[in-house]
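Researcher: Re-running this chain for the archive, since the previous output was lost when a drive failed. Same request as before.
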Amino acid sequence: MNDARSPSGPRKGNTALAESAEGYILVRDNGETFAFGGVAATGRLLANEISAPVAGIAGSPGGDGYWIALKDGVVHAFGNAEAYRGLLEADTRVVGIVATGAGDGYFLAGSDGAVSAFGAARVYGDGRVQMPGRRVVSIAAGFAGPGMTVSSG
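Model: Regenerated structure tokens:
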């Protein structure tokens, strides 16, 4: 097993990041987590829990937990992150996850522009970002107040 502070070995796929004032956690496509600074990795995905590559990670309040989202829309909760259940459109490929400012929910973004809200997160409008001819590639917390921002590539 790798030291939690040093992600060694061959790099495969993407790495995602969840950060807090105390430190940050990285997660690889294979569900392996690495903690840096004053936060602790409170869990990792087991091989039988990975139904698709990792799409992203989002931290819960206080840095004591996190959600790991898979590209097929499955989300796993660790530490003090609450598990929320919901449905995504069957053909939506998740490209990212972002927690609400209060940490009481999260948004998932699909490459097709679909945005889904879980927990106390709220999507206003029809939940689809319109960018003709472009795919959504990431999601980030809103800059002012509640909500989120998506970007395309």
